[in-house]
Amino acid sequence: MTGFEAFFLQLAEDFPRWNFIWLYDEKQAGRVLSGLWMTIKLSLACVILSLIIGIIGSWLQGARNRFLRATVQGYIQFFRNTPPLVQLLFFYFALGQFTPVVTGPDGWTEVPIISNAGWAIISLSFFAGAFNVEIFRAGIEAVPHSTREAAEALGMSRTQTYTNVVFPLALRVSIPALNNNLVNLVKTTTQAFAIAVPELLYESVSIWNDFPSAQNPTMLLLFVVYIALVGVLVFGMNSWERNMRIPGYGQ
Amino acid sequence: MTNWTPEQPIISIHNVRKSFGVVEVLKGVSMDIMKGEVICIIGPSGSGKSTLIRCINALNDIQGGSITVEGQEVHDDDLDRLELRKKVGMVFQQYNLFPHKSALENVMMAPIKVLNEDRAEVETRARALLKKVRLEGKEDNYPGELSGGQQQRVAIARSLAMRPDVMLFDEVTAALDPETVKEVLVTIKDLAAEGMTCILVTHEMGFAREVADHIYFTDKGVIVEHGSPSEFFDHASDPRTQEFLSQIL
Hints:
Chain A has one domain: MetI-like (MetI-like fold), CATH 1.10.3720. Chain A is built from 9 helices and 2 strands. Chain A has helices spanning 3-14, 26-61, 66-80, 84-94, 116-141, 145-153, 158-188, 200-210, 215-244, and strands at residues 101-103, 110-112. In chain A, a hairpin with a 6-residue loop joins strand 1 (101-103) and strand 2 (110-112). In chain A, helix 4 crosses helix 5 and helix 8 (200-210) runs antiparallel to helix 9. Chain B has helices at residues 49-56, 81-87, 103-113, 119-132, 148-160, 178-193, 205-211, 229-234, 239-248, and strands spanning 11-20, 23-33, 38-42, 64-69, 72-73, 88-91, 166-170, 197-201, 214-219, 222-227.
C-alpha cells in the first residue's frame, strides 16, 4: 500500500463520514472509473446524435411537404413539453417490450437488441434533439432572405444554398444556445440511473449503499466530476466558436 | 431548344403583369432588349422597377404576359432555373455577399458548386475577375472587412464568374457612400464597353445618360416613356416624366 492510500485509509478511520474508499480500494476505484467511462460514452453519443437530429429536423422544417413539417413540429412539441425522465421510462419500459430479442453471449439467455444504455441514448438524444431543432431553426431564420436569394440567383439549388450558405451561417448564430443545451444534456445523462444504466451516478449510489461511510466523499466526487466534464465541453464549444468567427462580421 | 438567334431580342418582355396580393405593381409592361444593349430603368420609388428585373431571372413570378430570355420563356412551370441563371447574372442593392467566405471564395463558389468546374481553373478566373473590378490584393479579405463599394465590386465579380450573357443591376449604388459610387459605376461602364448586355435600375441620372443606349421611365407600374438618353432627358414629352426630371435634375 502506498503512502497516499495509507493516508486515506487512516482518514476514514479518524473521520468515519469521510471514507474516500475509491482512493485506496481497487474494486471501488474500478466502479467509479467504469461509471465515469459510461457517462462519457453516454454524453458523447447523445451530443452527436442530438446534433444530427437538430440538423435534419431544422432542414425538414423548411420542407415544402406539409406533412413532413407537421411531423417535425409534433416531435418537438412532444419532447419539449414532457419531462425527460418520463420519456426515458416510456422508451425503456413501454417501447422496450416490443423490441426483438436475440440470444445472448452465453448461448441461452435472451437479451433485447437495445440495451438499457441504448434506450438511454435514444431517449436523451431525442429529448435534446428537439431543442437543437429549435436552436438551429432560430439560426436559420437569422440568415437574411436576401443572402439566400443571392445564392439562388447564382443558380444554386435549395440543397446547395442550405449546405454552402444558410447552414454555415446559421451554425455560427446557434453555437451559444447550443452550448447551453449540450451542457444540460451532459447533466441529464444522470437520469439513466432510473433504468439502471451503470453510469457515474448509478455506480456512486451503489458505492454508498455498500459503504455508507463513503457517501459524503462520493457526492463530492460527483460534483467535481460533472463540473470537470461540463468544463471540458464548454471549453471545446468556446474554442469552436472562436475558430468559426468571421473576420469583420457581427462585431 | 428554342430557335433564338442573336438578331432577335435577347430579352423580350411582353405585357407583364405582377401583383403582390391585391396590389398590382406591374400593369402591362413591355420592352425588347437586344444583345449588347445597356438599358436603364428609372422612375420614382414603388413604380415597379426592381420588381420588373427580379421577374427576369424568376426571383419573382408574374401573373400575366411573358418574359423570354434568349427565346426561353421564364415563367414556364418546366423552366430550367439553372439554365436561366447561368445566362442572367444579378447584382443587388445590399451586395448580399456570403459573409463567411473570403472575396475570392465568394467569386469561386457558384462555378465550383453549380457548374462543377475545375477548382484550379475557377481560381485563375476568379483572381482575374477580382483584378478586373480593381480588387487585386483583397482576395483573402472577408466581406465584413471591405467597404460597401468594394463589396459591391466583389458581388459583380461573383456574378461574372458564372459567365452570364446578361447582367441585371438592381439599384446597386443606392446603399453606397457618394465617394464609392463612382468606383462601382466605373466597373459597370467597363462591362458595358465590352459589350455585356446590362439592365440597370438606377437613380444615377448622369450615369444613365452617359452609358445607356435606351432609357425607360416607369411610374405606377407602367412604362410612361422611353427613348435614347438625349431624347429622354432633353425632350421628355409626358408631364409625369417632366415632373420627375424637374425634381431630380
